[in-house]
Each structure stands twice: as structure tokens, then as C-alpha cells.
# Entry
Amino acid sequence: MADQNQFTLFLACPPGLEGILCAEVHHLGWTQAEVIPGGVEFKGGWPDVWRTNLEVRGATRVLVRIGGFMAFHPAQLDKRSRKFPWSEFLRSDVPVRVDVVSKKSKIYHAGAAKQRIERAIKEELGAEISAEADVVVKVRIEDNRVTFSLDTSGESLHKRGHKEAVGKAPMRETLAALFLRSCGYDGSQPVLDPMCGSGTFVIEAAEIALGLQPGRKRAFGFEKLASFDAETFEQMRSDVPRQETSLKFYGSDRNAGAIEMSRANAFRAGIDYVSEFSQSAVGDLKRPEGPPGLVIVNPPYGARIGNKKLLFALHGALGQRLKEEFSGWRVGIITSDASLARATGLPGMRNGAPIPHGGLKVRLFEAGPLK
# Structure
């Protein structure tokens, strides 16, 4: 079995969504998790590291704080870095990258600190130092305290491993999952995205309903660490049975290429049998048969389309269609412009916190259930 030592795990997410991520983490069983700026943290062992990467939908990456010390000058940093037990965490045959940030400390030159820590790892452990390495040691020097963390995710966790095709300004899977949870989505209702792009909301919603692990099809940075137990992790990945659902998940878009992308991505994700994608303009949107659910959409904002009048008309047409066809359904609209959300004319609209996305600040606007 892997080392059962307890570490502080930090799960990162976009600022403004920490509470939503914390609710997901609590739901998955880590009830001691607490919100801190930029994410959630709690104590756990290596199996918790593997499982958070594998199962938490809203986190962009998982960092593990593995230790540290006080250092007031470069010679002290050098000496204590050489004594740090690197072999407990890193493998000598796997290249390492070191990233350093220094704030309010006597060791203020991050570049010089980085060189000393890299040299300590190379000479004491024997590992190669590489700017392209998958294993990353993150070093924070603040108020003269040096803290070492490992990035255990590797590639950002929004890369689920099944989406080869994406459109312009795509919604990241991790952000889509947090917005779905913000809308109260729990997998027990159908979901429809009338401007589905590459199908992110539809695929995430279907996976939640089927109880699928978001990281089931990808590799992780922790697989190259000294603590990794491949047999235990493989059991963790294979022990979760697919749930049954009678629900369908719907995406439409006026762009034929978007529909083709969505279908291909849904097939690779293994949820094509519960999803339906169709080419359709917003004005032709029809309510699917079956129980009411959630309409969630990330329409174009003014940043990508110059003519604002067209955008107001588009949002107005969407709102009109929803009011006519979607009685009992709830609605979530993600936009950077509150006036566009209001242009839908949907009653009782509530808005969430501003969230960074694609260089803009967007908000989730919610309405419904519609009368």
C-alpha cells in the first residue's frame, strides 16, 4: 500500500466558485474540507490525492503540500533543500520541473532560489531537471517560510481525455461542472443546451447522471511520483459501476460543425446513447418529451460578435422560446453582460458572483421554474 502520511491537499478552482467546489468535495465524502481563496483544502493521504484527481469534477488541479522550512538567506535555503527527503516523493528516473514564487521574504530573487532547489534535487536525488517535465515541484517563499508542493494532476483536470474537437472560446469542463452544480443539478433531471458548441454541458450532465468518474480516461502527474501504487489506483478507477438512467441529454446548435463535434465527443466519452444533438436555430427550439429539467447555455457575448443588436435579438428569441415551450424547466445563462441576460425577459432572474473565463468576468444568471 501507499504511504498513509497525511498532507494538506489544495484543490484549485476559479475565484468565486470555491463554495460550490467545497460542496462537491463534501458530497464526495471529504467533509472536513474548507474554503480558502482560490479553492478548497483538507488533510488527506495519497489515496485521497488519487481519488480527488479522478473524481472531483470542479477542481482544475490538485496540489499536495509535502513540507518546508524557514530560510532567511540563500545558503540556508541550499542546505535545507539538500536535507529535504526528496526520495519519499520524487523518483530519480523521472525529470522534474521547479517553479518558485517569492513574496515578502529576504530570499527575494525567485530565479536564484529556483537554481538552488533544482541543484539540490539533482545532486541529492539524481533526477534530471527539465522545463518540459510532467512532475512539477511548486515552491512558495513567503515571510521567509519555504513551502514545497507537488502538482499531482499534470495536465489541467478540465482535460477529461475524450474531447478532441472544440469550438471557439469553449467552456472548460471543470467550469461547466461547477455551473451545473450552482444550478442545483444532481443528475436526476434532463439537461438541454440550445447553443451546445462542442457539447460540454451536455456531456458533463450525462456523466453526472451515469455516475462516471471525470478522470477515468486520462493520465495524471501523480502516476510518476515515488508514492504511486498502480494496483490500488487501478482498482479505484474500475470499482465504480455505471449507473442506470432513463433520462436524455440534449444539445442543439445552428452550426452543423458544432453538432458533428458534439456527437464525436459524446461518443468518445461513452455517453452517446443517452444524448441527442440536432442542428437547430434558437427560434426553432422545442421542448423534449419527458420531465422538466435544466436549460443551461453559454451564449455569445459582445466580445466575440461586434453587432450588439444581433446579440439582444438572439437573447430575446431564446427567452421567448423558453417562456412558450419550457414550462416547469429551470434556466441557467452564463454571460459577461447583465443586459443580455435581461434581454431574455425571463422572470425572477438571479445572478451569481463574477467568474474569470476567457479573459472576461462572467456570471451565472438563473431563472425558473418557468410558469
